Amino acid sequence: MNVQTQAPETKAVGGGDVAGAFDDFARSFDAFRAANDERLQEIETRLSADVLTEEKLARIDAALDDAKRRLDRAQLERSRPALGGPVEGARDAGLTEHKAAFDLYVRAGEAAGLKRLEEKALSAGSGPDGGYLVPGTVEKEVLTRLAALSPIRAIASVRTISSGSYKRAFSTAGPAAGWVGETASRPQTASPTLAELAFPAMELYAMPAATQTLLDDAVVDIDAWLAAEVETVFAEQEGFAFVQGDGVNKPKGFVAAPTVAETSWSWGNLGYVATGSAGAFPTESPADVLIDLIYALKAGYRQNAVFVMNRKTQSVMRKFRDESGAYMWQPPAIAGQPATFMSFPVVEAEDMPDIAANALSVAFGDFRRGYLVVDRTGIRVLRDPYSAKPYVLFYTTKRVGGGVQDYAAIKLLKFAAS
Q1: Helical (H) or strand (E) element with 301
Q2: Which of 82, 137, 200, 222 has the highest CB neighbour count under 10 A?
Q3: Are residues 204 and 286 in the same domain?
Q4: Containing domain of residue 231, as a range?
Q5: How far apart are CA 406 and CA 191, in angstroms?
Q6: Which residues contact 144 (CB under 8 A, 6 or more apart)?
Q7: What does the alpha-carbon distance between residue 56 and residue 3 come to, in Å, rounded to a whole number?
Q8: What is the greatest pairwise CA distance in the chain?
Q9: CA–CA distance from 144 to each of 76, 194, 199 (Å)?
Q10: Can you give the pLDDT of all 418 residues of the chain as single tens digits?
């Protein structure tokens, strides 16, 4: 048998070459599908796959993941708007003044302009000890980049608040109702029962450093530099907290929420479907448990539902085929769209647990209704030229919270016997 031992060749992607990256991704998936079909045929004829075939499939799978990362990076680079351009409209004169004052503060440490602006705005809790608010354009750019980098933020509801906590009431039991005859008496019905959910905003920080020479260079776009420095570290911290955060000085992740078997589901818990095998999918018809997971969700939530898993779990699910032999996992049809599994979008979140005994490695649900991200207005920067000379540190903070807001909107797959 002529066995190909090389993964499909891919081209380097530069300058936001989204079309080239997408073509590489499509070729990688075609090679993956052919190699997996070969592996399955060997299992059917010999009851086991050739070692070289398994190795080839693993290399192609890694190449497919690499092509997807390059495609995501190219799309992100192309979607980033430019910062520091001219501000249009007389009503934005205050924003222009803020940008100029902030630029002077970052480059030279001159805070008089920012102090005057915050005094005019009657803002409290700022100044030399707490730092100064970045211009609105920088804050918007940071949040836009976080939405592109942080997978859960991109699919969850996001609410901006001006206080330290967001609270919302919900009904645990609706008003009673019943049928009556035309002349029958109408007894008083019970009132709805209300409870409250609270989402406190926790402090997230980063501390990028720059040399004074860099800051003195007028060509350097300080706004873009600061946004680029904090975007990745903020996204990494947020991504973990929204998935696995314990709620202590950080948001509460949905995987860390109380869980219960779907057959015993009650409000305040996320329901899970067990695979029936500890640390693995079932040997026979492994995709059946995913069908059970899909239909554990009510129809009203399924319309906007997505799968959430990490790269390793997705690698396992790529091999699943239906009764007609078609692959259940499908690559995106066009650049900018997610891959799908059984026609539902697949969101890759590396902070999801790997497949292991009792792990909650796959989530499925309407995260727009199920999970809430709370952003406190304002990102603050405190300039520190003393602690790490000759570098100038910029202690940058934002306040963010999060948690499950609808326990019926998200279901989990648990890799356990029951």
Answers
A1: helix 299-302
A2: 222
A3: yes
A4: 99-171+192-310+349-418
A5: 21
A6: 81
A7: 8
A8: 88
A9: 10, 35, 21
A10: 444 444 554 444 444 477 777 777 778 778 887 878 877 777 777 766 777 777 877 887 787 777 777 767 666 666 554 444 444 443 455 667 777 888 888 887 887 777 777 666 555 444 445 577 888 778 887 888 788 788 999 999 999 998 889 998 776 666 777 788 888 887 777 776 777 889 999 999 999 999 888 888 877 788 888 888 888 889 999 999 999 999 999 999 999 999 999 999 999 999 999 999 999 999 999 999 999 999 999 999 999 999 999 999 999 999 999 988 899 999 888 877 889 999 999 999 999 999 999 999 999 999 999 999 999 988 899 999 999 988 999 999 999 999 999 999 999 999 999 8
> Does residue 391 share a domain with residue 304?
yes
Residue 338's alpha-carbon distances to 14, 64, 241, 283, 328, in angstroms, are 21, 14, 23, 28, 14
Separation of alpha carbons 271 and 173, rounded Å: 19
Whole-angstrom distance, CA of residue 75 vs CA of residue 164: 34
User: Considering its fold, how many domains does the chain have in total?
Assistant: 2
